[in-house]
Please model this.
Amino acid sequence: MGNKFFRLQRIKEQLKRFIALAFALFSAFLFIVSTHSKALIFEKISSASREAVSPVFDVVSTPFEKISEKMEAFQNYFNVYEENKKLRLENKALKGWQNKALSLMIENKELAHVLNYQKDLGTPSKTLPVLAEHHSIFSHSLVLAGGENKGIQKGNILLLNGALFGHVIEVGKTTSRALRLTDYFSRLPVFVGDMKEPAILMGDNSDEPDLVALPEETSLKEGDFVFSSGVAGVYPQGLAIGYVKKTKDGFKVRLMENKNNIGFVQVVDFGTSGLIENTCLNKEKE
Amino acid sequence: MRFLKKKYFSYFVPFFVMLFFAFFEAVFFVQGNKDIFLISLLTCFTFYFSVFNPKRLNILFIFVIGVFSDMLLFFPLGFQSCILCLMAFFAYLFKRSLLSLSFKGQWAVFCGVLLVVSLSGLSLLYLTQSKSVSFLLFFANYLTIVLSYPFIASFCAFINQKTGANG
Model:
């Protein structure tokens, strides 16, 4: 009798545990689906958790950065010969570009004089340190040490050495989160080559994003220059992005700036923030 | 170490250990600029504690740790929770047979369960996000967790011993 009672108790306990597990699994699945819909509440949770953790990340990052630097220096030691050979070739090519740039500079000056061209008065920009970098199957993003306190707005554009690098997607009080061009959710209208062929630069969480939505009879070739087209008005026109790379499956883009371990980025406000904010608000209302 | 045996404190030890490890893992991957693994090393902790110390790692704790890890790694909220809950489910399912096995046997079962959970994670990823992972990264992820299990299990056994857990 007693044995039967204990057996029943155990079965009851196991049943309880499995029901709790099934409930937890269902809740987790609901969470995933809700996060995918990009609800405002999840953005707020994510932003708040990032704000809370970022100071600790900042402190802990120092030894990791040091180790990373040492390892890189150690690896470089073995690659000196190859690196030197590569640099010689690059130097040769750069000398050619230097001559070309000088003649273009003179030509540009003359044309500007003829057309009475007024130079751009400049756009407000800030240089912010990068707190953390994320490289995962889910995101290629950065956490920046500056948010509302530094006047950062959703939609501000990230430049690295003059090349387009990404844009700000979440802004907290003291930190903000930016999406890199390589991120899965990054879509950017671009022009390719001298013919200005329109295309969409689509991130796929790899180092080289895809070029899609090209015209049917395209004349793209390896090495063609890719720059922002300004279509849709989110990114301004003419920002350098990278060069075309031909693959078996189509075209990819070798980005001009795609390094990791970034110390600082330039955040520029081209006045497109309002546009993105409005789009998000409309989505929420729907 | 006497304070570890205090009833209320020892109840939360596995939870806090896993929470700390989730943070440590995030710092290692994020600050080390490594490609973040899809399946976390927390699966080892979940499996071990679910078999040998289930009373001190209940489902709510597993769920919260998963969400915390997702927040730190910028994964979709709930992904790690799903993986960890699945791991706990299999651990509960095989608990009785696992307790009678040697460590090598337990490790072999863990390898099998991890493979099933990892493949479920991949399917979930594909179903909800339409994304796939390269085979190499998946294999590296799997191998790392499998090889880490003995170390993590020894560490968990040490915690169980110090906190006087009876399984």
Remarks:
- The CA atoms of residues 121 and 127 of chain B lie 10 Å apart.
- Residues 135-163 of chain B form the longest helix (29 residues).
- The radius of gyration of chain B is 16 Å.
